[in-house]
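Worked example 3 (structure in, sequence out).
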């Protein structure tokens, strides 16, 4: 009944599924779609036919490819397309943004982070601090999580006058916690702190509005909920109020389009987010994203979020109903506004159980010490698959095949 009433049910047919497998790992790598395959093949066929002339075809589409993708992705985060560039990786984009916006002084120099974010973000922050001849042990201020979930008050209370920039996730990759960003950003803006957000585990599953938050920059990968393909090019948002700034890392593709091929020895800054591009676009890492984003715009992010909340709530209900007696519990926050796109299924033997699930055709992932992250994706997973997942898990526990 739930699947018959699902307004997004038709999109499942546009994604490639492996027979006999239930894929619940789209929070790590989204599935390939027919649409993504087509946009990639269109590029490949044009390259085969045209060679170097590919750049001049279709109204120079691929020269301006980032701008085309930005038009498609803008509705997902509620900003202007010219504030978005699709380039590099999530971590490299942190470097790109911080090289421009992190300007420490003797009184205001610290970078505020937490200790449960994805570690690559911290590596980038520490590197940027060292490049300013500062010591991360002094210049990186860490908010320590007390318990399983981050307390927003701890973050806000850590915003002292010496904090110059903060970098936080919107959704925590491990616990699926959604931070109350409005309150955090209001305080940071009040204190003139540069705000950077990692929205990798939020974009494509949560209805984001970065303009309302009034942040300075954001980064995200595109291979999780956005289904852009393994290692697909990442995204960078630069608030238009910073367009006048010279990029801290400049390269030829950040030069104005009209003078780029004049190869002058002085950088002619393109004064929008495209000015933060460095090298030639990685077209084959961008093309599948076009097809995928077209699906998102057709489905609508509000509808996607609505189903995501319902199908994860259904999963939590089944865990409570059937699996608690076998030592399972839900390890994420249950409130809709505090829950991202995956459910944390907790069990002391989670590692072994996840391997047993894999042998039964169930794809999830495991995080130390006891969490199986399970993500029923709105565009291609069904309520029936969630039910089957729980039934298989129940059978594994009854038979002790883990």
């Amino acid at each position: 009944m739930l699947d018959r009433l699902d307004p997004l049910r038709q999109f499942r047919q546009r994604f490639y599924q492996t027979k006999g497998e239930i894929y619940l790992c789209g929070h790590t790598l989204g599935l390939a779609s027919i649409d993504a395959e087509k946009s990639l093949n269109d590029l490949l066929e044009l390259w085969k036919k045209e060679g170097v002339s590919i750049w001049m075809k279709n109204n120079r589409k691929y020269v301006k490819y980032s701008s085309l993708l930005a038009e498609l992705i803008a509705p997902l985060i509620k900003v202007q397309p010219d504030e978005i560039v699709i380039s590099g990786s999530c971590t490299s984009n942190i470097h790109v943004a911080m090289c421009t916006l992190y300007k420490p002084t003797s009184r205001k120099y610290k970078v505020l982070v937490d200790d449960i974010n994805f570690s690559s973000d911290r590596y980038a922050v520490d590197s940027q601090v060292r490049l300013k001849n500062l010591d991360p042990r002094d210049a990186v201020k860490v908010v320590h999580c007390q318990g399983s979930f981050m307390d927003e008050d701890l973050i806000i209370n850590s915003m002292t006058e010496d904090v110059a920039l903060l970098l936080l996730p919107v959704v925590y990759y491990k616990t699926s916690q959604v931070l109350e960003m409005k309150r955090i950003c209001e305080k940071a803006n009040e204190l003139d702190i540069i705000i950077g957000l990692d929205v990798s585990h939020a974009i494509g599953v949560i209805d984001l509005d970065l303009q309302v938050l009034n942040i300075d920059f954001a980064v995200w990968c595109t291979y999780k909920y956005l289904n852009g393909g393994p290692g697909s090019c990442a995204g960078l948002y630069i608030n238009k109020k910073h367009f006048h700034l010279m990029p801290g890392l400049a390269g030829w593709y950040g030069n104005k389009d009209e003078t780029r091929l004049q190869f002058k020895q002085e950088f002619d800054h393109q004064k929008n987010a495209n000015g933060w591009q460095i090298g030639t676009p990685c077209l084959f890492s961008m093309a599948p994203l076009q097809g995928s984003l077209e699906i998102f715009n057709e489905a609508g992010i509000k509808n996607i979020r609505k189903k995501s909340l319902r199908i994860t709530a259904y999963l939590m209900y089944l865990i409570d109903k059937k699996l608690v007696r076998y030592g399972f519990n839900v390890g994420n926050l249950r409130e809709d506004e505090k829950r991202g796109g995956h459910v944390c299924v907790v069990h002391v033997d989670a590692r072994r159980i996840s391997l047993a699930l894999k042998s039964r055709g169930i794809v999830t992932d495991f995080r130390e010490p006891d969490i199986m992250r399970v993500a029923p994706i709105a565009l291609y997973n069904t309520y029936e698959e969630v039910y089957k997942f729980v039934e298989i898990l129940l059978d594994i526990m009854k038979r002790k095949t883990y």
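Notes: The domain at 37-298 is CATH 3.40.640.10 (Aspartate Aminotransferase; domain 2). The radius of gyration is 22 Å.
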